[in-house]
Design goal:
273 residues, alpha/beta, 3-stranded parallel sheet, 3-stranded antiparallel sheet
């Protein structure tokens, strides 16, 4: 099998194939990232969310020690994920609602509030609560028929909540920040019930439909089935079979569940998943 690559990519591959790379140096890694971005000329920032997230969440109080200096006990991709979530915890001190209100008061660009509202609803349905970071602790505030007040520390939450919470946090954060992301996500279905897996797939559809790219690895027929429905509805909408996208239905007061497949209309997911 032969691949045709540009001169810039060829020169980059040749350079690192013949030379030694100092992987332990953050400066070297950052330099490599810049060279790759220049070679491929892609404006998307790469975000990798690994499997095994629930274990990291359980150890939330000890994350700093896990990534201490030159530790080789955790691979580089996992270390990068841990550093990212640690750096962003403070952003969610008042949860997604507080983050949105803060952005509305400090930003001049247009915020996609309808998309964020839909994502927030999916997040609450899957997590059965709202995430926040208060007094140095990650917590889920439990909502029961609109009443709040009770909470659970994230390291005592269920494995499904632990696995899903930072997927939703990162989707919400990057949509709000209007960054173009190439998301590589491992096993979004981990420890979730089938209905929650469908909601997770819809959330990924909302994200991909916002000028982002998505690569997912999964063992779940529910995730695959949900993606197939999203993809099919997108193709149907293209041919006029479905006249309204999910966000337009929402404006008319229709519930998400009744038109959930329409999220993929004109979505990059049609070509990229």
């Amino acid at each position: 099998m032969c691949f045709r690559v540009s001169g810039k990519i060829y020169d980059l591959l040749k350079k690192y194939d013949q030379g030694e790379f100092l992987w332990d140096s953050e400066e070297s890694r950052q330099s490599l990232r810049c060279e790759i971005d220049e070679a491929v000329q892609d404006g998307h920032e790469t975000l990798f969310i690994p499997a095994g997230r629930s274990l990291i969440t359980v150890l939330t109080d000890h994350l700093a020690a896990l990534i201490d200096s030159e530790s080789r006990n955790i691979d580089y991709c996992m270390q990068s994920y841990i550093k990212l979530t640690m750096n962003l915890r403070g952003v969610f001190k008042n949860g997604t609602r507080g983050l949105l209100e803060e952005k509305k008061s400090t930003s001049q660009y247009i915020i996609d509030k309808k998309r964020l509202k839909l994502l927030d609803e999916l997040m609450v349905r899957v997590l059965k609560g709202r995430y926040s970071y208060k007094d140095g602790e990650e917590i889920l505030s439990i909502s029961n028929r609109g009443r709040t007040g009770k909470y659970v520390k994230i390291n005592f939450a269920s494995s499904g909540q632990q696995d899903a919470v930072w997927i939703f946090n990162l989707l919400y954060y990057y949509i709000l920040e209007k960054k173009s992301i190439f998301l590589i996500l491992e096993e979004p279905e981990s420890h979730l019930f089938p209905d929650a897996q469908k909601d997770m797939a819809e959330a990924l559809g909302l994200f991909a439909n916002k000028n982002n790219q998505l690569m997912v690895t999964t063992h779940s027929p529910y995730i695959l089935g949900a993606f197939n429905n999203l993809l099919y509805s997108g193709k149907s909408a293209t041919h006029g079979i479905i006249s309204s996208a999910l966000l337009k239905w929402q404006e008319k007061g229709r519930k998400v569940g009744s038109v959930r497949c329409n999220v993929c209309k004109r979505s990059p997911m049609k070509e990229n998943i």
